[in-house]
């Protein structure tokens, strides 16, 4: 739709100029303004095929005007931009009926691509406005590029019941994301039920999930409901799904396929209406290769994969996270604290093996143990202690790097040993190549912040080859900061 007219609204003249020039080079006609009143006059007059606008304008907030736009021009896509790059901004954009939300600063080529998709498949707004930007109650904190992709993905999934699998290291906030999907989604009025697979004895997992009838096993004195029944109409969060035993995986797969289950010891099928959100800190593909996780269940759960970045990939979020945790402990009755610039510098240099959970624990210790209002670098260094030194300089701790060949050799030795006297399943060569290719491509995409052209050049492969491998390996393309 090369002749489409794009309406651009932003109070920054430089931004208006840059966007307008990029769109005109792409073949679009552009009209630009610095205020909402003019933008609304154009829309009401029937002008424009798509709107690109900043959220905060000198004469108002675009979120307040979006319902009017949707009532007047329901087929007009609206792309909103904002420098207030928070989770709630993305959610409010989605709730208000915006086609997409783009955090500032943004990639112009990405903006042009979004416009192309929007014009090809314009979306009519169907969701009401009404979410207040309550910064103090935000479930997710951070404005880094890595988190912006998470916010946008979550915003798109809020009005669906698609099954989501959240991967990430321990302490990255997987349950927080699962709760956000529930609390701001279409099932918010239903229950949110969480179950940790790693914390339940293997012989009790099926009873915990599906319930049991009286007399089903020794000690079953009464009928008990399972988590599926408790979560009916809401969300069931399956944490540490990689620790689920194979026999329970088989029953879970049957539930996902048929939409019903039977309690342990029961015969009558029970219909289920839940949204499944799974999470793991393990590589499920490796578990599949070792015969520890069902491949068919993996594809049932991995409808929408979401990778949470470790804190070391979003270092710029540390100040916001620290302020958030200080505010929380202040509500608990502890005195107000702040971090000196030196203390923040120390935190930025630390590798955070425990991720956001480790940072939260550190903030709580600093608040409870020290009377100073301003926390200094020396105090932070003292609390991080040996972990701090180890993270800053691995050579000082005696750690010695090993080459990739040695690492693979060690892995294969342990892998073969895990089968005892037996041999691994056939097809080992392709499985090992796949396991090496996946982290290699993921690392290249992370290093280039999701730019596939740069990643292909970095890897030394054709761009189309890279795209095919991303699709075949199911690699999540998530930008991250460096």
UniProtKB/TrEMBL annotation:
Keywords, A to Z, come to: Activator, ATP-binding, Cytoplasm, DNA-binding, Nitrogen fixation, Nucleotide-binding, Phosphoprotein, Repressor, Transcription, Transcription regulation, Two-component regulatory system
* Biological processes per GO annotation: regulation of DNA-templated transcription; regulation of nitrogen utilization
PROSITE patterns noted in UniProt: RESPONSE_REGULATORY, SIGMA54_INTERACT_2, SIGMA54_INTERACT_3, SIGMA54_INTERACT_4
In this chain, where does the modification 4-aspartylphosphate occur?
Answer: 54
Question: Domain Response regulatory spans what residues?
Answer: 5-119
- Alphabetized InterPro entries for the sequence: AAA+_ATPase, AAA_lid_NorR, CheY-like_superfamily, Homeodomain-like_sf, HTH_Fis, P-loop_NTPase, Sig_transdc_resp-reg_receiver, Sigma_54_int
Q: Where would you say this protein principally sits, based on its record?
A: cytoplasm
Q: Which GO terms describe its cellular component?
A: cytoplasm
**Gene3D superfamilies linked:** 1.10.8.60, 3.40.50.2300, Homeodomain-like, P-loop containing nucleotide triphosphate hydrolases
Which ranges carry the Sigma-54 factor interaction domain?
Answer: 140-368
Claim: Transmembrane helix is one of the keywords in the record: no
Give one Pfam hit by family name: AAA_lid_14
Gene Ontology MF: a single term: sequence-specific DNA binding
**Domain of life, per lineage:** Bacteria
| UniProt subcellular location | Cytoplasm
Function text: Member of the two-component regulatory system NtrB/NtrC, which controls expression of the nitrogen-regulated (ntr) genes in response to nitrogen limitation. Phosphorylated NtrC binds directly to DNA and stimulates the formation of open promoter-sigma54-RNA polymerase complexes.
User: In its UniProt entry, what is this protein called?
Assistant: DNA-binding transcriptional regulator NtrC
Q: Which organism is it from?
A: Consotaella salsifontis
């Amino acid at each position: 739709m090369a002749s489409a007219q794009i309406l651009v609204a932003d109070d920054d003249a430089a931004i208006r100029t840059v966007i307008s020039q990029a769109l005109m080079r792409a073949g679009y006609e552009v009209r630009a303004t610095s205020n909402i009143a003019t933008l609304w006059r154009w829309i009401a007059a029937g002008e424009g095929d798509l709107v690109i606008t900043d959220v905060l304008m000198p004469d108002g907030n675009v979120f307040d005007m979006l319902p009017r736009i949707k009532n007047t021009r329901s087929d007009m896509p609206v792309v909103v931009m904002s420098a207030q790059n928070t989770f709630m901004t993305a959610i409010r954009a989605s709730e208000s009926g915006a086609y997409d939300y783009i955090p500032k600063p943004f990639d112009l080529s990405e903006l042009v691509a979004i416009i192309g998709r929007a014009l090809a498949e314009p979306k009519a707004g169907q969701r009401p406005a009404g979410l207040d930007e309550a910064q103090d109650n935000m479930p997710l904190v951070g404005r880094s590029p890595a988190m912006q992709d998470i916010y946008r993905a979550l915003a798109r999934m809020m009005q669906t019941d698609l099954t989501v699998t959240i991967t990430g290291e321990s302490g990255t906030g997987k349950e927080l994301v699962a709760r956000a999907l529930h609390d701001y989604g279409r099932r918010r009025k239903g229950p949110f039920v969480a179950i940790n697979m790693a914390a339940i004895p293997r012989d009790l997992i099926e009873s915990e999930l599906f319930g049991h009838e009286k007399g089903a096993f020794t000690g079953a004195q009464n009928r008990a409901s399972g988590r599926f029944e408790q979560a009916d109409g809401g969300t069931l969060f399956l944490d540490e799904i990689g620790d689920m035993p194979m026999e329970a995986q088989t029953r879970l797969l049957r539930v996902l396929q048929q939409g019903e289950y039977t309690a342990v010891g029961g015969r009558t099928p029970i219909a289920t209406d839940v949204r499944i959100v799974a999470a793991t800190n393990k590589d499920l593909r490796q578990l599949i290769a070792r015969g520890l996780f069902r491949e068919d269940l993996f594809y049932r759960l991995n409808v929408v994969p979401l990778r949470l970045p470790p804190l070391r990939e979003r270092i710029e979020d540390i100040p916001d996270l620290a302020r958030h945790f200080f505010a929380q402990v202040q509500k608990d009755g502890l005195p107000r604290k702040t971090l000196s610039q030196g203390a923040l510098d120390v935190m930025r240099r630390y590798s955070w093996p425990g991720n956001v959970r480790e940072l939260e624990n550190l903030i709580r210790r600093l608040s409870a143990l020290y009377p100073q209002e301003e926390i200094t670098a020396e105090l932070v260094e003292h609390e991080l202690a040996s972990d701090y030194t180890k993270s800053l300089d691995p050579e000082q701790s005696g750690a010695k790097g090993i080459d990739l060949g040695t690492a693979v050799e060690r892995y294969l030795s342990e892998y073969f040993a895990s089968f005892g006297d037996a041999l691994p399943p056939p097809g080992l060569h392709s499985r090992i190549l796949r396991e090496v290719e996946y982290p290699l491509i993921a690392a290249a995409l992370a290093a280039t912040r999701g730019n596939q052209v740069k990643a292909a050049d970095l890897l030394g492969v054709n761009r189309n080859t890279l795209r095919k491998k991303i699709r075949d390996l199911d690699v999540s393309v998530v930008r991250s900061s460096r």
